[in-house]
Amino acid sequence: MDMNSQEIRLRILKLLYEKDEEKPNASVRFDTIKSDLGLEDEHIRSNIKYLEDKGYIEISKRIHYRYHLVKISSDGKDIIENKSLLKNEFPSIQIIVQKGKINIANQGSQNTSVEIDNNE
């Protein structure tokens, strides 16, 4: 799977958003993110660090510079739930919002979607 950093970041946010919708305020293990996205450690780690620096996710446990528990922040939820913010933050990704679903289509990558409560 060939994804650019923006697509990896968006997929991480979407995954954490979905997990939070299933169980509010839940933290997700790094290994779960890795297996669900099917990516190598180095692709996930650098993008998790970026998302944390932007305030979109929170890391609640680190051991020896390794991330163990990650959850979406309120700012991260705002990005996913607001079509304008989403498109501004991820301009190189084709994002289509229809009937409460975000669809991501990126050339050379797999398409994905997630249901949201989009109030915009």
Structural write-up:
The chain has one domain (about 5-115): Winged helix-like DNA-binding domain superfamily/Winged helix DNA-binding domain (Arc Repressor Mutant, subunit A, Orthogonal Bundle). About 45% of the residues lie in helices and about 25% in strands. The protein has helices at about 5-20, 30-35, 40-55, 75-80, 85-90, and strands at about 30, 55-65, 65-70, 95-100, 100-105, 110-115. Helix 1 (about 5-20) packs across helix 3 and helix 4 (about 75-80) crosses helix 5 (about 85-90). The model is unreliable at about 105-120 (pLDDT under 50).
Domain tally: 1
CATH topology: Arc Repressor Mutant, subunit A
Q: Compute the CA-based radius of gyration.
A: 13 Å
Which CATH first-tier class would you pick? Mainly Alpha
Counted by DSSP, the helix tally is: 5
Percent helix range: 40-55%
Task: Give the CATH H-level superfamily.
Answer: Winged helix-like DNA-binding domain superfamily/Winged helix DNA-binding domain
Q: What value does the average pLDDT take?
A: 79
